[in-house]
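Hey,
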Amino acid sequence: MHLLAMTDLLTMLTLGAALGFFGGLFGIGGGIIAIPFLALAFGMEQALAQGTSLAMMVPILLVGWWRYSRRHPVPWRTASQIGLLASLTTWLVAYVATGLNPNVLRTVFSIFLIVLALRMLARRKKSVPEEAGSRFSLRLMPLVGILGGACMGLLGVGGGLVATPFFTGFFGQRQSVAQSLSLALVTPCSMVALITYGSAQRVDWSVGLPLAIGGLFTVSAGVALAHRLPERTMKTAFAWMILGTAIWLLLKPILLK
């Protein structure tokens, strides 16, 4: 029993380390991967898996946001506006979404991500200077928080996946800066969600904390790699990550039956 417990602990630390690295690299929390893993490996119900993954995500998101903002400072006023709008939208949409069919929502969201990823991949041959101009006033950037918050409210994940391409494609932000802005969007939403799940006793801290500890050891390495990779490489990798996520969301109901 003791050996089994140690094996589970090492598994959680290793998974947390992997999610922390990719979370730092792409500016996401890793909940899309963690939630099904917790459901399969530990037999958690969906709500408990989501709450436990939030216990891992919040520290990783906080450290990732801090590291990104040190390399590419984002105006605090803009970041706070994005986070506030995202948090309010998440709360409002989540309240409405409770009466909707989650399978239909997941399918629509997955198709949207596939189209978004394919569009990014189709544009990857364009040079960075061509894509650097902003199509809209930078004062409108906080409105992306509404879009990202709506995704978080509908499914609990995906805010950063949607927000980052909008920051790069419509506001001309570099990939690393866009990921920093997306972290400003997702982090407060995740903190509010963690408090909510925790108050409802839907967080297994004995699992979530080891995942967070593992992630904290590697998130900085992921952020450092993100800043060393060429802009085009980062955009291509991010697009493939979105495409993989969308395919997983489509296959998840079939694989987890």
